[in-house]
Design a protein that fits this description.
Largest sheet: 7 strands, mixed
Number of strands: 7
Strand order of the largest sheet: 1-7-6-2-5-3-4
Order of helices and strands: HHHEEHEHEHEHEHEHH
Mean pLDDT: 92
Distance between the termini: 30 Å
Radius of gyration: 17 Å
Shape: globular
CATH topology: Glycerol-3-phosphate (1)-acyltransferase
Number of helices: 10
CATH architecture: 3-Layer(aba) Sandwich
C-alpha cells in the first residue's frame, strides 16, 4: 500500500488524467486494443519510476511473432501483470480470479485489458471462461494465465501448477510461453518504498506439435520445470525444488 501511495503521489498532477482516461478506455469500443495497450504501458512506466521499481527483462525474442498465444508465468503478487504489461509489446488479456475484479484502480486496468474473471467455485462458469479464452486465442488474441491459481506467498518458490489451467491452450492449439518471474512480490509485498528490482524472463515457447501428445498434467509439469530451472539460473542458485 505504501508503494502504491508513493506511485500516486509522485504522479499526482497527471494521475487524474490517467485515471479518467483509463475508465473511458475500459468502457469504449471506439479505441483499438493496440492504442489501449500502449496507454497502459505508459501508466506502468510512470508507476515504476514513481514507485522506485526496476524491471529487468530478458527472452523477449522468444515471444511468438504471430498473435494467438498464452503466457504461463509463476505467480507472486499483483505486480506480475504490471511487469508483463511493461515488457510485452503484444496486446494481451489475462484470466483473473473474481475477487480481483473489484479492486480499486486494478479493476480498470483489467477492464482495459479485457480480462476474463473466473469463479473457481463455479465449475460451469470456469469452463465457460476456458472456452471463451480458447476461442479468442484461436482468433488471434493473447492471454496470461497463472497456472498456480493464486500467488505463492513463498517468495521465488514456485507452487503446484494446476493441470486445468492449460485446457484453453490445448483447445486453441496455440503456443505455450513459460514466463519466469523473480522477486515480483517485492514491489507490493515488502511494506517498503525503497528501490526494488525484479526480473522477468520469457522462455522458449512450446508449440502445439510439441505438446499435442501430452495430457494437461504432463504439460503442467513441463512448464513448471522450465520455470523453476530458469528462476534458479536467474538467482544464481542450485535447483532446490520444494513443490
Amino acid at each position: 500500500m505504501k508503494r502504491i501511495l508513493l506511485m500516486i503521489f509522485r504522479n499526482i498532477f497527471i494521475f487524474p488524467y490517467f485515471y479518467f482516461k483509463m475508465i473511458y478506455y475500459a468502457k469504449t469500443d471506439r479505441v483499438s486494443d493496440e492504442k489501449k495497450y500502449e496507454f497502459l504501458k505508459k501508466i506502468v512506466k510512470r508507476a515504476n519510476i514513481g514507485g522506485n521499481v526496476i524491471i529487468e527483462s530478458s527472452g523477449t525474442e522468444h515471444i511468438p511473432e504471430k498473435n494467438g498465444f498464452i503466457l504461463f508465468p509463476n505467480h507472486q503478487g499483483m505486480y506480475d501483470v504490471l511487469a508483463i504489461l511493461d515488457t510485452l509489446g503484444h496486446p494481451t488479456s489475462v484470466v483473473i480470479k473474481k475477487e480481483l475484479a473489484n479492486i480499486p484502480m486494478l479493476k480498470w486496468v483489467f477492464a482495459v485489458m479485457r480480462a476474463q474473471s473466473m469463479d473457481r467455485e463455479d465449475v460451469r462458469q470456469s469452463m465457460k471462461v476456458i472456452l471463451n479464452v480458447a476461442k479468442e486465442v484461436s482468433e488471434g488474441r493473447n492471454y496470461v494465465i497463472f497456472p498456480e491459481g493464486t500467488r505463492s506467498k513463498n517468495g521465488n518458490q514456485v507452487g503446484e501448477f494446476k493441470a486445468g489451467s492449460f485446457k484453453s491452450a490445448t483447445k486453441a492449439k496455440c503456443p505455450i510461453v513459460p514466463v519466469a518471474l523473480v522477486d515480483s512480490y517485492k514491489p507490493f509485498d515488502t511494506h517498503t518504498v525503497s528501490k526494488v528490482s525484479m526480473k522477468i524472463c520469457y522462455l522458449e515457447p512450446i508449440l502445439y506439435e510439441q505438446y499435442k501428445d501430452m495430457n494437461t498434467n504432463q504439460i503442467a509439469e513441463e512448464v513448471r520445470s522450465r520455470i523453476v530451472e530458469k528462476i534458479a539460473e536467474l538467482e544464481g542458485k542450485n535447483i532446490i525444488d520444494k513443490q
